[in-house]
Design a protein that fits this description.
Elements: E1 5-6, E2 9-10, H1 14-67, H2 74-79, E3 98-100, E4 111-113, E5 119-124, E6 127-129, E7 134-136, H3 140-146, H4 156-161
Length: about 160
């Protein structure tokens, strides 16, 4: 069989070469698109980490406000309905959090932080690594609210009981 001749010249292989070039361009565009997709997935995971961490922080604060002690685990917060579900760490495969313990005690948790050592796109409290993002309950405000502010007049019961101001 004779090769195709265009304008008196041989054109064999030109079609194959143009198809290979088109496949190369398609492959490069797919690589660029997948790289952007990976960044988007990571940013979504970061947003989820922030949301879950803040939910756990608020649950610990409510627990402390009502019970005047810290929870022993996230499971306890879930079982007592302080959390809707047992939230996992979205940045690590197994989903386990690193607990923040108060005053060196391992039996109670004050908050959580991610175990992932990756660098973040966002800054959270001026920290750029996930394992530095701490979602810790701030119970110091609650302790101050429980105490009588200075200069507050005594109640009639306090006056009759002879308690000093």
């Amino acid at each position: 069989m004779e090769p195709i001749i265009a304008n008196g010249k041989r054109a064999a292989g030109f079609t194959l070469l143009s198809i290979m070039f088109m496949v190369l361009l398609l492959h490069l565009s797919m690589l660029i698109a997948l790289q952007g997709w990976d960044v988007r997935i990571t940013r979504d995971k970061e947003a989820e980490l922030l949301w879950r961490g803040k939910q756990i922080k608020r649950a610990i604060e409510r627990f402390y406000k009502e019970r005047k002690s810290y929870p022993q685990s996230l499971e306890q917060l879930f079982n007592l309905k302080y959390l809707r579900k047992e939230y996992t760490d979205p940045m690590v495969a197994d989903g386990t959090w690193q607990y923040i313990h108060p005053f060196g005690s391992k039996s109670y948790i004050l908050g959580v932080k991610s175990r992932s050592k990756g660098e973040s796109f966002y800054l959270y409290e001026n920290k750029d690594k996930y394992n530095e993002w701490e979602f810790k309950a701030d119970v110091s405000q609650q302790n101050r609210r429980d105490q009588r502010p200075p200069g507050r007049p005594q109640t009639p019961e306090e006056i009759s009981a002879g308690k000093p101001k």
